[in-house]
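Consider the tokenized backbone below.
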């Protein structure tokens, strides 16, 4: 069974900073297309669960819809 986690993406220079409050974690991605995967990997490593069991809902920080 997969769980859904919310990840907030904020643009910081060339990088997207990704915050996942449910696991009190932060990671980054260079490309917007990579945000969900980076967040899923963060959750999987933090909770010691298979990455395939993690679903991510990406929320863009206000003004960061690039």
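A designed sequence for it:
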């Amino acid at each position: 069974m997969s769980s859904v986690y919310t990840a907030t993406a904020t643009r910081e220079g060339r990088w997207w900073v990704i915050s996942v409050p449910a696991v009190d974690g932060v990671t980054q991605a260079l490309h917007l297309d990579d945000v969900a995967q980076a967040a899923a990997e963060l959750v999987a490593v933090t909770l010691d669960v298979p990455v395939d069991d993690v679903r991510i809902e990406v929320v863009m920080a206000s003004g960061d819809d690039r």
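The helical segments are 35-47.
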